[in-house]
Amino acid sequence: MILSIVWVLFLDAGLAVGAYLTARALGADLFAALLIGTIVAGLRAAYVIIRRHEVDAFSLFMIATFGIGLVMSVLTGSPRFLLAKDSIATAVSGMIFLSTLLAGKPMMFYLAQRFGASSAEERLEWQRLWPTNAGFRALFRRQTVVWGIAFLVEAVAKLILVLLLPVATMAPIVPFFTPVLITTLVIWTVRDSAKAQRRLRAEAASPSVVES
C-alpha cells in the first residue's frame, strides 16, 4: 500500500521535479526551469481530474498550490524569489489543511479517500461512516493537524535556507523538500491508520462498547 501511494505521489510531484531537472540539464535558465516544473505539475493535476471524471478536494488543493507558484513565476523574474515561492506555496498548503478543520471534513479525509476508496461504493461508505463513527472522524482530524503543522514547519525551514544560502546551491535541492516530506508523512499516516483500525476493532469487540 505504501509503495502504491508513493508511486502516485511521484506522479503528482515527481514529474514536476523531473521536468525541472531535465530543463536545467538541457541548458534552461533557473526561471524557465522552475516555470516548466510548475506547468507540468498543473497539467498532472488537471489530468487526474479528467481521468476520475470528478473534481475532488485533493485535486483542487494540488491545482491551487501549483497555481500560486505559476502566478508568482510569471510576476517576478528573481531566481531567489522563485525559490522562495515554494515556501509560500507550502505554507499556504499547511494553512489549507488546518482551515479544513473548521468546517466540513478535514483534508486528510479526502486524501485518504483518494487512495483507499477507489470505487463509488467505497466512497459512499466513507460518507456514511463520517457522521456515525467518532473514531473515524478523530483519525482524519488528528492526521490533518499533523500534516498542516508539518507543511508550515517545512515552509519556514525552506525559506530560511533559501534566504541564507546561494541560489545555485538551493535550486537543485528545493524541489525535493516537499516530495520527501510527503513520503515521510504518508508512511506515518499508513501506520497511524493501521493502529487506529486495530484499536477501533478492539473497541467494537469490547462488551462495554456493545452494551453502550
UniProtKB/TrEMBL annotation:
Transmembrane segment boundaries: 28-50, 57-75, 87-104, 145-167, 173-191
Alphabetical UniProt keywords: Membrane, Transmembrane, Transmembrane helix
Domain of life of the source: Bacteria
Protein name as annotated: Intracellular septation protein A
Originating species: Microlunatus elymi
Lineage: Bacteria, Bacillati, Actinomycetota, Actinomycetes, Propionibacteriales
